[in-house]
Design a protein that fits this description.
The chain is mainly α. 70% of the residues lie in helices and 0% in strands. It has 3 helices and no strands. Helix 1 runs antiparallel to helix 2 (30-45) and helix 2 runs antiparallel to helix 3 (51-61). The N and C termini lie far apart (29 Å).
Length: 63
């Protein structure tokens, strides 16, 4: 939501918190992959490099 209205700082803060929570769950699942994908999309929208994050999200989604 914050990303769609252009509040990238707030979106990054929320996604970083959620990423920490998902990583603490110690599961490699689609929830973690989704957070990584959203974070990579946020970085891309800001013109930042997001290759490593996007690769990690794709790796988690593979069967």
């Amino acid at each position: 939501m914050a990303r769609t209205i252009g509040n990238y700082d707030l979106a990054q803060e929320w996604l970083t918190r959620l990423l920490t929570i998902r990583e603490q769950e110690k599961k490699n699942n689609t929830d973690l992959a989704d957070v990584l994908h959203e974070l990579a999309s946020l970085y891309q929208a800001q013109g930042k490099v997001s290759r490593q994050i996007r690769r990690r999200s794709y790796f988690l989604k593979e069967p």
